[in-house]
Structures are given as structure tokens and as C-alpha cells.
């Protein structure tokens, strides 16, 4: 689902990076406790290939699955964790200025007790890990300079299963963007997806999609 709206910001021009974005730490982005519980119960395993879009501050602004593991839960779980945890030293152009870039990679979900690595994830079922939040991507005309990352929100349902409350748990860095995230979540008719839970979490990511000039 996409929403086009106006947010005042300057749009960066495409610049060819000279140096690539590099992870800021060698610590694995995904741990043994992150295995999606539903997939673990069904013994789902597989490798997710992805491409992250990295902004000049080194934050991931979008995660695209380029080759599926064969299981949506594993694909969505990997992208959710990468969007929240992956941080980079940004790519730079010939003048040394930080620029936006892409970062391709792969993660393997495998049940077991092997130590997780940068390019593969081998872990236990992670029975204590909560289910991954829902994911929603919105397209906007432009993103404000204060936008740093996707917003994480908790929504609560009324007796009729409609959203009655939205609370931002982790800000995007922009109050205006957070407001849009909650407005969109409040409009979802099937946010509870048939669940009887009183609340649910969502990760709302944004991408700039300028309106074409006539």
C-alpha cells in the first residue's frame, strides 16, 4: 500500500559513490533468539538475499528481498531486523561527501545451535522471541532531513477490531513522518489480520517517490 503526500525537503541528486558503504560493526545483525517462532515450529529454513538502500547518514531506509527463502515469515523477519539494526559508514563520492548507496547481502535461517555469522544466520528456534511486527511501506513526495529510520508503532484494537490507538515506540526522527505513520495505521481495515490480540506492532518505512511534473 502506498501513500503519496507532500513533505518539505530537498531531494538529493543521484551521485555515483567511489567508496562503498561498510557495516560499522562485525557484530551479527541477527541473533539466535530472532528466529520467527511460527517458522521454527514448522521447521522452515532458507536463505534470504536482500538489498538495503543506505542513506548518507548510514541508516537503512529500505529493504528489498531479491531472492526469497521460500517463506514470507523468514523474508519479512530478516528485513525487519536489518532495517532496525544495520548501521553503516556511508558510501562517499570523489570529494569525500557521504552519499546514498545500496548494500546487497544474504542471510541463512537454519535451525540448530551454530554460532551466527555475518553472511548466515544459524540459530535455535528462539521460543522466547516475539513474532516479527507487521511491515508497511509508504511512498511520499519527499522525506524531511530529520528522517533517520522507519518508525516502530504499537496499535491497539477496540471490540470491533478497529484501530483505536496508535503509539510511536521508536521515532523515525521526524514528528511529521511519525504522524503520517499512525494516520495510515489507523486507516487499516485488516490490521489485526484475524488475530484476537489486543495490540500489534508495525514497522512503517518510507521512501521518496517524487510526483512527476506535467
Q: Explain this structure to me?
A:
The chain has 214 residues and is α+β, with helices and mostly antiparallel strands. The chain contains three helices and twelve strands, in the order E-H-E-E-H-E-E-E-E-E-E-E-E-H-E. It has helices spanning 37-41, 72-85, 175-186, and strands spanning 22-23, 46-54, 60-67, 88-89, 91-92, 98-99, 101-111, 121-123, 134-140, 151-157, 163-170, 199-208. Strands 3-2-7-8 form a four-stranded mixed beta sheet, covered by helices on one side. It has a four-stranded mixed beta sheet with strand order 9-12-10-11, with helices on one face. The chain is flat, with a radius of gyration of 18 Å. It starts with 21 loop residues before the first strand and ends in a 6-residue tail after the last strand.
Topology of helices and strands:
Layout: E1 22-23, H1 37-41, E2 46-54, E3 60-67, H2 72-85, E4 88-89, E5 91-92, E6 98-99, E7 101-111, E8 121-123, E9 134-140, E10 151-157, E11 163-170, H3 175-186, E12 199-208
Parallel strand pairs: 7-8, 9-12
Antiparallel strand pairs: 1-4, 2-3, 2-7, 5-6, 10-11, 10-12
Amino acid at each position: 500500500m502506498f501513500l503519496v503526500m507532500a513533505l518539505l525537503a530537498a531531494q538529493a541528486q543521484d551521485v555515483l559513490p567511489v567508496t562503498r558503504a561498510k557495516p560499522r560493526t562485525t557484530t551479527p545483525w541477527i541473533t539466535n533468539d530472532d528466529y520467527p517462532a511460527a517458522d521454527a515450529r514448522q521447521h522452515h529454513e532458507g536463505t534470504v538475499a536482500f538489498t538495503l538502500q543506505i542513506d548518507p547518514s548510514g541508516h537503512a531506509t529500505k529493504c528489498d528481498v531479491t531472492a526469497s527463502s521460500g517463506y514470507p515469515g523468514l523474508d519479512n523477519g530478516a528485513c525487519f531486523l536489518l532495517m532496525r539494526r544495520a548501521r553503516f559508514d556511508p558510501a562517499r563520492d570523489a570529494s569525500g561527501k557521504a552519499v546514498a548507496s545500496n548494500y546487497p547481502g544474504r542471510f541463512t535461517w537454519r535451525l540448530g545451535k551454530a554460532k551466527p555469522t555475518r553472511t548466515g544466520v544459524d540459530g535455535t528456534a528462539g521460543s522466547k522471541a516475539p513474532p516479527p511486527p507487521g511491515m508497511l511501506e509508504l511512498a511520499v513526495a519527499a522525506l524531511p532531513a530529520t528522517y533517520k529510520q522507519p518508525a516502530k508503532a504499537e496499535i491497539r484494537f477496540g471490540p470491533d477490531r478497529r484501530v483505536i490507538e496508535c503509539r510511536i515506540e521508536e521515532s523515525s526522527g521526524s514528528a511529521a513522518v511519525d504522524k503520517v505513520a499512525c494516520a495510515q495505521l489507523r486507516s487499516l481495515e485488516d490490521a489485526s489480520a484475524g488475530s484476537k490480540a489486543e495490540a500489534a506492532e508495525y514497522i512503517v518505512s518510507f521512501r521518496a517517490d517524487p510526483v512527476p511534473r506535467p
